[in-house]
Amino acid sequence: RRLDSRSGLSAGLLGEIQTPVSTEPMDSVYETTGELGRGKFAVVKRCVEKATGKVFAAKFLRKRRRGRDCRADVIHEMAVLEVARNNARVVNLHAAYETDHDIVLVLEYAAGGEIFDHCASDELLPEAQITRLIRQMLEGVHYLHQSNLVHLDLKPQNILLTSLSPPGDIKIVDFGLARRLGAVGELREILGTPEYVAPEILNYEPITTATDLWSVGVIAYMLVTGESPFAGDDKQETYLNVSQVNVDYSRENFSRVSELAVDFIRKLLVKAPEDRPSAAECMSHPWLWQQPQICLTPDLVPTRTGRERSCGTKWTAPPEDPED
Ligand code: ADP
Ligand code: MG
């Protein structure tokens, strides 16, 4: 499925890391307790640092995959996490270990699980919570894009929460498919999960930062409606739905939320990448700033828990307030 000229680092991979990769036995420092999730080549386990009692998430990444040495891919994933180290919306890398089979990334623990659980449940989040989470997601995405990185695998399974109820702050995880832009000009790769990937990926067209904004639109749609906008009965149908941008905006799906939600999503789910707003432009969409919250900067956002904090980017609310 994957067209990918992986010659060394030329496909936008980063090669330099600062975090030492320890070959000491990890279980002298951490006690692993249970599984948090798994993908094709990774298992994520909850672990406790024995000295401090602090909880972390240990992502065990296989070094060999399909008979190929993939150590460089793991180093790249670490390097991306290091680039985003100072951004509160991206999961923090605490330490790294290496065993015969795996490299283990010891990550900040996101105790609230995946926002997927808020997309596929009978109890969807209130609109004010959804817009708060989308603002946070855009802050993280904006930071990555400013750092010349694209995530390319943004989906509700890769956006975690620091706490479940009330929903905490978001943490973007899983930088396995992330790439650096610019280094080799255009990136053309088949990546990601069909349900969540942009039409340009299915069409082997150049990948840009706009590709991530499509995924933000898909996630927003799911948080609002509880449904995946392009999921078909099979892969074929899903591909067709994506490439034709076949989206159901019928009112019954959106009855819970304001008209502005539909406007926000419609602006992102457009076929031509160059016609999608950037993360910074999305940030000034009135949907994200509507009542009951009157906010000027994230520092001032009143939340029920008072836990929202700034991630270092100052955003100003859009000039006109359509609600007034
Ligand atoms: P993969 O590349 O296999 O998809 P991910 O990094 O997405 O690996 O991790 C898989 C799953 O493990 C996530 O979807 C999430 O449910 C869980 N997970 C990953 N990182 C953390 C973390 N820091 N805290 C809590 N759960 C996590
Ligand atoms: Mg994942």
TrEMBL record:
<comment type="similarity">
    <text>Belongs to the protein kinase superfamily. CAMK Ser/Thr protein kinase family. DAP kinase subfamily.</text>
</comment>
<dbReference type="InterPro" id="IPR008271">
    <property type="entry name" value="Ser/Thr_kinase_AS"/>
</dbReference>
<feature type="binding site">
    <location>
        <position position="59"/>
    </location>
    <ligand>
        <name>ATP</name>
    </ligand>
</feature>
<keyword id="KW-0808">Transferase</keyword>
<dbReference type="GO" id="GO:0005634">
    <property type="term" value="C:nucleus"/>
</dbReference>
<dbReference type="GO" id="GO:0004674">
    <property type="term" value="F:protein serine/threonine kinase activity"/>
</dbReference>
<dbReference type="InterPro" id="IPR000719">
    <property type="entry name" value="Prot_kinase_dom"/>
</dbReference>
<dbReference type="InterPro" id="IPR011009">
    <property type="entry name" value="Kinase-like_dom_sf"/>
</dbReference>
<dbReference type="GO" id="GO:0043065">
    <property type="term" value="P:positive regulation of apoptotic process"/>
</dbReference>
<dbReference type="Pfam" id="PF00069">
    <property type="entry name" value="Pkinase"/>
</dbReference>
<protein>
    <recommendedName>
        <fullName>non-specific serine/threonine protein kinase</fullName>
        <ecNumber>2.7.11.1</ecNumber>
    </recommendedName>
</protein>
<keyword id="KW-0547">Nucleotide-binding</keyword>
<feature type="domain" description="Protein kinase">
    <location>
        <begin position="30"/>
        <end position="288"/>
    </location>
</feature>
<keyword id="KW-0418">Kinase</keyword>
<keyword id="KW-0723">Serine/threonine-protein kinase</keyword>
<dbReference type="GO" id="GO:0005524">
    <property type="term" value="F:ATP binding"/>
</dbReference>
<keyword id="KW-0067">ATP-binding</keyword>
<keyword id="KW-0597">Phosphoprotein</keyword>
<dbReference type="GO" id="GO:0035556">
    <property type="term" value="P:intracellular signal transduction"/>
</dbReference>
<dbReference type="InterPro" id="IPR017441">
    <property type="entry name" value="Protein_kinase_ATP_BS"/>
</dbReference>
